[in-house]
């Protein structure tokens, strides 16, 4: 369901792999009976509800059902725990000109990437609380 990389791609305004995330959330939040029916039908047939919810904008994420929100929230927390530092530490390093300039160009770029990723993840936490 997730694809080869096993990850979802999030942007500032929406989920970029929205179809994969939608299907994954639906399947993971199904009851056993719903899942059996899903497997028997080889997935869902095209219906207007799925088409309506296929784009996972930030607004749509905030309207997800509680079990899906909880699953996303817990997943984001696990992802954030996998980093070696928290968002505040990254921000402090970015704001400390002397420490920042001691980093190599590659380390500076990595810092900006990590900081951006963590900001997006924190935004997602707020949306699904």
TrEMBL record:
Subcellular localization is given as:
Nucleus
What protein name does the entry list? N-lysine methyltransferase SETD6
Annotated Rubisco LSMT substrate-binding domain residues: 4-121
Indicate where this protein is primarily found: nucleus
Q: Which organism is it from?
A: Cochlearius cochlearius
Q: Where is the composition biased (Acidic residues)?
A: 43-53
InterPro entries membership: Rubisco_LSMT_subst-bd, Rubisco_LSMT_subst-bd_sf
A biological process term (GO) from this entry = methylation
Q: Does the keyword Ribosomal protein apply?
A: no
Q: Which GO terms describe its cellular component?
A: nucleus
Q: Which UniProt keywords apply?
A: Methyltransferase, Nucleus, S-adenosyl-L-methionine, Transferase
Q: Where is this region: Disordered?
A: 38-59
